[in-house]
């Protein structure tokens, strides 16, 4: 009998379905995995940095959404700098505040970020911004980015009445560029560009009639960075242009940093997906994406550089809502942005599993790694895993850290717990100060023999 003797497993009772399940690293092949650290925010409001064996090597008591380690090249060589939420708006103030957004569209407004900033390895504050924001609060949500010149892009929100939406205040997503002394030097508002996002008149009418105040729910923002498209003269992909994602409208778009105009978009209209019962081939035209997360251009030097990588959650979204497939799960798509064709994808069946074995209808992330593997965050189950280009799972980790589930109404379901993870980041060893770490192989037991001893 394989009981609880495996040192890399712990049992976390009464946290999810099934009610008892292994946590920690459950699969690990050091020869095939991209080795390094992994960073994520636990729902217990702690940032964890773990090694490949799941050992916690460092923590910060911060609730960032998301927290990320900054490339030392962008911090003057300083290692171990964390961008994160520094201070929260009080519960009472947040209850009366318009314009905030949440983890789940239509759910409680949980992004109560009063102050965003950077802290060092020892949690010393290096820079912060919030009081200088137009609303007096950073209201950073879903994403942020450190720029090469030392400025910071912050995805924020504001409550405004918008043309065509009536007298109610809508949550208007806004991007601020803030310099090193806290001055806002550039601002971009989503509502100024609705007519550039590809909506038909009928779709715009549905959008303006929505009961959801957070009408577009931007959930990602990433600077394109240097790429071969721009080097060959395609100005849509200029390195300082910004990719954004509207989860609720099924749209990925690129903002021209110089003009503010939308110069490229994917969605909101897609051809339907093929049959659940017939595997698709690549390359092929992009088909129905629903409620995507974390779209970004793969950086130079990585396999697939210049292509767009995203998590296609397949969670209900769209104006009108996209048709859902009964037996499908989530998928990861790599897309050529010029031909808009899928050139690589991952679904659970590539790992020999039913497609619904990988499914996160909201939250999650993806990251291409130097050896060609892809790190995937199956957000709702707190499961992080690496797959090869052929779909082999070569590292898998299930978080043992739980907190309040992002449910509606939260106050009435406060006892509901979950190990959900919004986003994960693969961190090279040399991005942080030297710290001991392990790379011990983990071979999972045969499931029929993996029991809890009576």
Provide structural commentary.
This protein is mainly β and 454 residues long. It has a domain at 74-216. The protein is built from 3 helices and 29 strands. It has helices at residues 91-95, 201-209, 228-231; strands at 10-11, 22-28, 37-41, 47-50, 56-60, 68-69, 82-88, 113-119, 125-129, 144-146, 152-160, 170-178, 184-189, 218-223, 242-246, 251-255, 262-266, 284-285, 293-297, 308-312, 331-336, 341-346, 365-368, 374-378, 383-387, 393-398, 403-404, 417-418, 424-427. β4 and β5 (56-60) form a beta hairpin. The longest helix is centred in the middle third of the chain and has 9 residues, at 201-209. The protein is globular, with a radius of gyration of 21 Å. The protein starts with 9 loop residues before the first strand and ends in a 27-residue tail after the last strand.
Overall geometry comes to: globular
From the N-terminal CA to the C-terminal CA, the straight-line distance is: 11 Å
The overall pLDDT, averaged over residues, is: 91
The overall strand count is 29
In short:
The protein has helices at residues 91-95, 201-209, 228-231, and strands at residues 10-11, 22-28, 37-41, 47-50, 56-60, 68-69, 82-88, 113-119, 125-129, 144-146, 152-160, 170-178, 184-189, 218-223, 242-246, 251-255, 262-266, 284-285, 293-297, 308-312, 331-336, 341-346, 365-368, 374-378, 383-387, 393-398, 403-404, 417-418, 424-427.
